[in-house]
Design a protein that fits this description.
With about 230 residues, the chain is an alpha/beta fold. It has helices at about 45-55, 75-80, 100-110, 115-125, 130, 145-155, 175-190; strands at about 5-15, 20-30, 35-40, 60-65, 70, 85, 160-165, 195-200, 210-215, 220, 225. Helix 7 links the parallel strand 7 (about 160-165) and strand 8. The radius of gyration is 17 Å and the shape is globular.
Length: about 230
């Protein structure tokens, strides 16, 4: 399934892990300029969905980004197509400081030094709490600070699509509000960006998402307008 208005189109996505079918015929879209939520209980398949979209786990089915098939590409090539990914467990390199973690994916994409600096300053402006931490090793950050750093890292390369896995999980209320505020500002600053957010608590998605899909036992239910 392809749609010219959709940044991301997914059709018939299946994932089998260790002999168990984890995702079952997932079909959905993330339109350009929209934030879409994927809500479900722990173990419903949310994280596996994002890992499949990023190419971290093997999948069957069709995945199109801006009308082009990416389902046979590896994670690095998908990132080069403009997908930014902030995993649930952050996956920061703990020996590197915050700025080094932010710069790394842009360096891998071989952006010019000037472009990396432009992107870095844009991220630090959006997430000013990271500027105060920019020289701190990632391993010394709190869990909430690591979530913010993972968002910033994803934004360094996520030109077309941003995948955020359980971004509010474990955040203190004040930091959760700041994270949501940053996403609302991002929507204004980059209106063309498509965003897919997973969350166990659908009420956290309501202020941000145009639609929320529910996933149960690896299957997506009809989306809900919010």
């Amino acid at each position: 399934m392809k749609d010219a208005c959709a940044a991301l189109s997914v059709s018939g996505l299946d994932v089998v892990l260790e002999g168990a079918r984890v995702l079952r015929n997932l079909t959905f879209q993330v339109p350009s300029g929209k934030t879409i939520g994927l809500a479900g209980h722990n173990g419903a398949g949310k994280t596996t969905t994002l890992r499949a979209l990023m190419g971290v786990v093997r999948s069957r089915g069709e995945i199109h980004l801006d009308g082009n098939a990416i389902d046979k590409m590896g994670p690095a090539e998908r990132a080069r197509r403009g997908i930014g990914y902030a995993p649930e467990d952050r996956r920061l390199i703990v020996a590197l400081n915050v700025v080094e973690n932010l710069r790394l994916p842009a360096e891998i994409r071989a952006f010019s030094a000037a472009e990396i600096e432009r992107r870095l300053q844009a991220v630090l402006e959006l997430l000013p709490e990271l500027k105060a931490l920019e020289r701190r090793p990632a391993g010394l950050l709190s869990g909430g600070q690591q979530k913010m750093a993972a968002l910033g890292r994803a934004l360094m390369v996520g030109d077309r699509l941003l995948l955020l896995d359980e971004p509010f999980q474990g955040l203190a209320p004040a930091l959760a509000r700041r994270y949501a505020e940053a996403l609302r500002t991002l929507r204004l600053q980059r209106p063309e960006l498509a965003i897919l957010i997973t969350e166990s608590n659908p009420s956290l998605l309501a202020p941000l998402a145009a639609q929320v899909y529910t996933i149960e036992r690896g299957e997506i239910r009809a989306p809900t307008q919010v």
